[in-house]
């Protein structure tokens, strides 16, 4: 009886410690294993592996183009969210909103230029990143699947740039999308249907603007985020960043 009482008392006394242990899951072992467990147990630190090959960190090999592309995406997401506060996807108001950003809103022209030039830079960075991967043979086994994911991310980057082109609703945007949709219409058999789905009709108007807006601010960014998550996960599963085969 007394042993049972002491057992219950010890359990109650150690309850906070047990809860903390169940949440944090401490791992006993060597100091190196403890450091690795600290990385595995933190969602932010877990983005990077516990060990990295020294040649994977050579700037001259990767040029940091993948991270540059990701950081540019973050800049675009932040600046684009701020721009949404001053933009209305309407053929009557969109162009005036752009002029308000340029002449009325404090630092509006800076915000818009940050978004615009970051978009141009991201297209260039992603393209150069793909060229670097191809040039160094980093698409070969076991990274074939991640190469396909990278191609999808390149297409997403181009689609994001294309859909954002119409949003200012000026002459350049109007005729650029007109030319782009007409090019899509030349696809065999389904070209006219593709053009109709793109524009929501037979001409560049309100339906086209709202469709491009939804694609630009919602559907394509979410798809890009999912693909980036898969891309980063595959980098980890494939043994980290690529490196020279003989290193």
From TrEMBL:
It comes from the Bacteria. Residues 5-244 form the Cytochrome b/b6 N-terminal region profile domain. Pfam families: Cytochrome_B. Gene3D superfamilies: Cytochrome Bc1 Complex, Chain C (1.20.810.10). PANTHER family: CYTOCHROME B (PTHR19271). This is Cytochrome b N-terminal domain-containing protein. The chain crosses the membrane at residues 61-87, 117-135, 147-166, 172-191, 212-233. PROSITE patterns: CYTB_NTER (PS51002). Keywords: Membrane, Transmembrane, Transmembrane helix. It comes from Geomonas propionica.
């Amino acid at each position: 009886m007394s042993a049972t009482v002491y057992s219950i008392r010890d359990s109650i006394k150690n309850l906070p410690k047990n809860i903390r242990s169940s949440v944090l899951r401490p791992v006993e072992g060597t100091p190196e294993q403890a450091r690795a467990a600290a990385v595995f147990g933190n969602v932010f630190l877990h983005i990077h592996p516990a060990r990295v090959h020294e040649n994977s960190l050579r700037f001259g090999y990767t040029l940091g183009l993948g991270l540059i592309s990701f950081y540019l995406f973050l800049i675009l997401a932040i600046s684009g969210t701020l721009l949404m506060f001053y933009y209305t996807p309407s053929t009557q108001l969109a162009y005036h909103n752009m002029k308000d950003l340029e002449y009325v809103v404090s630092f509006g022209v800076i915000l818009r230029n940050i978004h615009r030039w970051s978009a141009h830079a991201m297209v260039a960075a992603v393209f150069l990143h793909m060229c670097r991967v191809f040039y160094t043979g980093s698409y070969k086994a076991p990274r074939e699947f991640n190469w396909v994911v990278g191609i999808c991310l390149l297409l997403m980057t181009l689609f994001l740039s294309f859909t954002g082109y119409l949003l200012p609703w000026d002459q350049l945007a109007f005729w650029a999308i007109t030319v782009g949709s007409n090019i899509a219409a030349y696809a065999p058999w389904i070209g006219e249907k593709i053009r109709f789905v793109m524009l929501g009709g037979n001409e560049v108007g309100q339906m086209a603007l709202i469709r491009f807006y939804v694609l630009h601010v919602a559907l394509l960014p979410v798809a890009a985020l999912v693909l980036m998550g898969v891309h980063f996960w595959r980098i980890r599963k494939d043994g980290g960043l690529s490196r020279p085969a003989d290193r």
